[in-house]
């Protein structure tokens, strides 16, 4: 079959990272195809996006569409609720301490994807195929992508933004390491009677974090990490009882609570691709790295993949080729691997019964609470595009 169209970049996947990648490619003046089936969104799901991600959304001109739905995050409070002998003191990180008004914004996933796809629809460089990719074949000088409806596209590069079960990753032959935790994350949204003051609060329990992230008005999104059986039970009990239990776990910090969206429980897992590029294929977002919903890292990292894509597109001014993909892989190594390790260690440090590990955690958080330069260092690392060193 003769290819229907010839593109410089073809993005597979229409989640937030896919649309952002399409906009980045268009911004670099590249002829871009995006293969994106109609999106579906879990009701009430939000993502806390930090300063770097917000900057990127501003560059794409998407923020004006999002301000009416975005909730600012001005402070982050960590509370040790393990009830253990060795406990860390409470620590609050304020954005103002590092010269920022906000760390970022909590944004509903649906609004984010709608805002990005709307921008893409208005770009003359982007052709949208509302379809799925079903086959990829790597030629010496290009990639052929066949869609579910039988359209054949030809592209210099293909970007896999097709999520955790990425077809692009599989067809490229990049292995992925997956691991599971003996935990589940229960997710829902709540209305509360006390103002959250734009403070995100994370209670660290010995089963995992219980996190309340501000939404607009007196609303919060809840990510409650629990043992799988307990999480299933929490999904099944009547809403009123659930709300009472959530209030108890939050020590009534935000007053009485009411459930405002369906409760969904996800088995906690993570994953990491062996490489982030191979041949003429690049992987971004969950096609490259799957994070448990702890520490709000997943999409922030996915949007940093998009920034790296922007960088390599500006370096390779002429024809895009394997060199572009190799450079992308090199740029993403340290950031993705260090964050994967950090989130894994943070989660495991809560679960462990080992006293030395508990003591180390307590010492680190005490230092953060009592020593402002260390606290500022941690905040800067948290927001940095990659680990910056001491
Ligand atoms: C409960 C929860 C809370 C979270 N909170 C945060 C947070 O606060 N901050 C944060 O940064 N991250 C958070 N995350 C992570 C974040 O949601 C993900 O990192 C992000 O949604 C991944 O986006 P993506 O575009 O890579 O993948 P996806 O959103 O999975 O999109 C992939 C897209 O590809 C499409 N697709 C699949 N196969 C094909 C194909 N063959 N052809 C074409 N298209 C295809 C799919 O239909 C889908 O639309 C959270 C995750 C969870 C589960």
Give an overview in words.
It holds the Pfam family FAD_binding_3. One of its GO terms (biological process) is ubiquinone biosynthetic process. This is 2-octaprenyl-6-methoxyphenol hydroxylase. Belongs to the UbiH/COQ6 family. Pathway: Cofactor biosynthesis; ubiquinone biosynthesis. The chain has 390 residues and is of the alpha+beta class. It folds into two domains: 5-45 and 109-177 and 269-357, FAD/NAD(P)-binding domain (3-Layer(bba) Sandwich), CATH 3.50.50.60; 63-108 and 182-268, 2-Layer Sandwich (D-Amino Acid Oxidase, Chain A, domain 2). The protein has eleven helices and 20 strands. The protein has helices spanning 16-27, 51-59, 63-66, 109-121, 167-172, 228-236, 239-249, 298-315, 322-351, 355-370, 372-383, and strands at residues 5-12, 32-35, 46-50, 71-73, 75-80, 91-94, 104-108, 126-129, 133-138, 143-147, 152-160, 176-192, 199-205, 208-215, 219-226, 257-259, 264-273, 277-278, 281-283, 289-290. The strands form three sheets. Strands 5, 6, 12, 13, 14, 15, 16, 17 and 20 form a nine-stranded mixed β-sheet that branches. Strands 1, 2, 8, 9, 10, 11, 18 and 19 form an eight-stranded mixed β-sheet that branches. Strand 1, helix 1 (16-27) and strand 2 (32-35) form a beta-alpha-beta unit. Helix 1 (16-27) runs parallel beside helix 4 (109-121) and helix 8 packs antiparallel against helix 9 (322-351). The longest helix has 30 residues, at 322-351. The chain is globular and about 65 Å long. It starts with a strand and ends in a 7-residue tail after the last helix. The model has no long low-confidence stretch (mean pLDDT 89). Flavin-adenine dinucleotide is lined by residues 12-18, 35-37, 39, 47-48, 132-133, 161-163, 167, 185, 187, 223, 266, 285-286, 293, 296-300, 302. The site of flavin-adenine dinucleotide has 32 residues, from helix 1, strand 3, strand 12 and helix 8.
């Amino acid at each position: 079959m003769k290819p229907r169209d010839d593109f410089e970049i073809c993005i597979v996947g229409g989640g937030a990272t896919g649309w952002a990648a399409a906009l980045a490619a268009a911004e670099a003046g590249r002829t871009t195809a995006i293969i994106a089936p109609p999106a579906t969104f879990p009701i009430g799901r939000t993502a806390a996006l930090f300063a770097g991600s917000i900057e990127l959304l501003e560059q794409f001109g998407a923020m004006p569409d999002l301000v009416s739905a975005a909730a600012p995050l001005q402070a982050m409070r960590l509370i040790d609720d393990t009830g253990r002998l060795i406990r860390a003191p409470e620590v609050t990180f304020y954005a103002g301490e590092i010269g920022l008004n906000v760390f970022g914004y909590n944004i509903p996933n649906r609004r984010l994807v709608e805002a990005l796809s709307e921008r893409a629809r208005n770009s003359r460089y982007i052709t949208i195929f509302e379809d799925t990719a079903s086959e990829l074949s790597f030629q010496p000088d290009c990639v052929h992508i066949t869609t579910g409806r039988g359209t054949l596209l030809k592209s210099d590069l293909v970007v896999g933004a097709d999520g955790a079960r990425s077809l692009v990753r599989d067809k490229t032959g990049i292995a992925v390491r997956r691991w599971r935790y003996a935990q589940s994350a229960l997710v829902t949204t709540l209305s509360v009677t006390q103002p959250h003051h734009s403070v995100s609060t994370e209670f660290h329990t010995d089963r995992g974090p219980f996190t309340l992230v501000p939404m607009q008005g007196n609303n919060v999104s809840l990510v409650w990490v629990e043992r799988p059986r307990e999480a299933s039970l929490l999904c099944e009990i009547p809403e009123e009882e659930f709300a009472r239990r959530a209030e108890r776990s939050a020590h009534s910090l935000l007053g009485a609570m009411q459930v405002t969206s369906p409760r969904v429980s996800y088995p906690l897992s993570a994953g990491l691709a062996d490489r982030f590029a191979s041949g003429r294929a690049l992987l971004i977002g969950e096609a490259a790295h799957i994070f448990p919903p702890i520490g709000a890292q997943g999409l922030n990292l996915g949007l940093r993949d998009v920034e790296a894509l922007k960088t390599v597109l500006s370096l390779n001014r002429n024809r895009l080729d394997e060199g572009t993909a190799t450079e992308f892989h090199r740029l993403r190594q340290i950031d993705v691997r260090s964050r994967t390790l950090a989130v894994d260690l943070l989660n495991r440090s809560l679960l462990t019964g080992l006293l030395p590990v508990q003591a180390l955690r307590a010492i680190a958080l005490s230092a953060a609470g009592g020593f402002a330069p260390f606290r500022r260092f941690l905040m800067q690392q948290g927001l940095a595009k990659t680990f910056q060193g001491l």
